[in-house]
Amino acid sequence: MKNPVMTASGTFGYGVEFADFVNLEDIGGIIVKGTTLHPREGNDYPRMVEMASGMLNCVGLQNKGVDYFCKNIYPDIKDIKTNMIVNVSGSSLEDYAECAARINELENIPAIELNISCPNVKQGGMAFGVTTEGASAVVKAVREVYDKTLIVKLSPNVTSIADIALAVQDAGADAVSLINTLMGMVIDIEKRKPVLSIATGGMSGPAVKPVAVRCVWQVAKAVSIPVVGLGGIMTASDAIEFFLAGASAIEIGTANFIDPAVTVKVAQGINEWLDQHGCASVSEIVGQLNA
Amino acid sequence: MKKYIKDLIVKEVEFPHELYVLLKLTDEEPLPATMPGQFVEVKVEGSPKTFLRRPISINYVDREKNELWLLIKKVGEGTHRLAELKVGDRLNLVFPLGNGFSPVQKAGERVLLVGGGVGVAPLLDYGKYLKDNGAEPVFLLGARSKTDLLELDLFGAIAPVHVTTEDGTEGEKGFVTQHSLLNKEHFDRISVCGPKPMMVSVARYAKKAGTPCEVSLENMMACGLGACLCCVEKTVKGNVCVCKEGPVFDINDLTWEI
Q1: Assigned domain for A291 exists
Q2: So what CATH class is B4-97?
Q3: Is B32 helix (H, G, I), strand (E, B) or coil?
Q4: How far apart are CA A58 and CA B53, in angstroms?
Q5: Residue B53: which pLDDT band, with cuts at 50, 70 and 90?
């Protein structure tokens, strides 16, 4: 990777939507929109509600399916010279494996991020990610058919995220990324109704950052595979917190909505911080908390 | 159309009414090309509760003065904060966003532009464009009351203006769809921007009359770039982003019950 900054799935489209604002090749990795075996319409509107220091969404993995991706989107993004990574989701073991197998055939997609943590779909999604057995089963099923880098995205909506991380490591994951959104709810008190169409949604933005840093810290101590940290990163100093907690790379999500050029600014800010602190690379600070 | 992030300069601040603010923005260099009906995403500073940018219609672009106007209704904390901006302040915009209204279809076409409340905002820029490009726009503007009618003099300088107010304090009393103009004159097509119930009733009228009609939607949105998929509207082609495929839609592409 040219730098440790990636974009979080579902917040950066397929990258091309942001090409007017940043040189996409200056970003360490672009994790594109969640892709499923079959097309999904997603949930009804309203899908988003704002809160202080964050937002909730219940998009529900709207996408046109893996065949459409391979035929119509891949040709447009395959020559972007950075790590173009596909986020893969599903509602059954077979769906996950079949979708991953299709992506495996795409030469310029060096990795997938397996989403076992989406809080916004009725079946599957997070259901796999909240038990060690479910997480292990889906990672094993995908590992059998997918031979490139397999990153598994974890949910914070669990009792022990370190146990889930260990399970996916044992099942063959090459890395874990965390956290996906925190499940939340907002109520319109005049209508006495939830604001979001499916009542609950995934909370993101700076409000969730301390939860994410804590999760990364717990997971990094437990596993031996690399940890990718995300959750509320808006600035380079936020990113440094994740490195110190044990992440060796980070993803930027919701911040892309506020500043479409934030990725390259954070990447630059990380380098400045490293220079100021006499560090040659991020690896020197990964997990380097003073006891 | 290329999109930009820019810190524009607040050149003038006007208050047409206590509930509204008109910001006239400028830049050191010529403003980028925009199309009528497009919008901007404004970053609101100094409001901890306002996390996301605010999508605001482009009210008018004055190329000679290098000005871009935003006509804003004070609704929540974010828009109230925007109304506190002073001349010389900087305002960060991501723009131009969305598809905009239809270009001129044929010389001399009569286009009815229907606006409600602060939804009149993009029709000023569109009306000027239509007039300058050989079409014949006519404005039909509705509001609750006389004081909610905005920029009437500016609309009047472009084309004929017809008005309704719900309380009858200006123009004909009632809703835009009840205006006598609709029974008297023929229009080749209609463009609408305003509250959803108003747009639905105009769409219903247009469908019945067999007049092509487009509406500008304002679903809640986050990114404004078609990335987050939050602002979707159900269409005959499935869920699509209002910020990217819209905000302007042909009523036949929507799934409204009209």
Answers
A1: no
A2: mainly beta
A3: coil
A4: 19
A5: very high
Cross-chain Cβ contact A45/B48 below 8 Å = no
Tell me whether 0.90 is exceeded by the ipTM. Answer: yes
**Preferred mutation among B225, B244, B256 to probe A, highest tally of A CBs within 10 A:** B225
CATH of domain B110-216: 3.40.50.80
Domain count, chain A: 1
Compare CB distances from B51 to A55, A57, A59 and report the shortest one's residue: A55
For an interface test with B, the pick among A257, A262, A264 (most B C-beta atoms closer than 10 Å) comes out as A257
Parts of chain B belonging to CATH 2.40.30.10: 4-97
State the catalytic residues of A.
118
CB < 8 Å & 24+ apart, contacts of A183-187: A183/A119, A183/A126, A183/A157, A184/A56, A185/A56, A186/A49, A186/A51, A186/A56
Q: What is the pTM of this model?
A: 0.96
CA distance, residue B220 to nearest chain A CA (Å): 7
Q: Which of A232, A41, A6, A218 is nearest to A120 (CA)?
A: A41
CATH code for the domain in which residue A52 is found: 3.20.20.70
Residue A193 pLDDT > 90: yes
Domain(s) of CATH 3.40.50.80: residues in chain B: 110-216
In this prediction, residue A120 has a pLDDT band, given cuts at 50, 70 and 90, of: confident
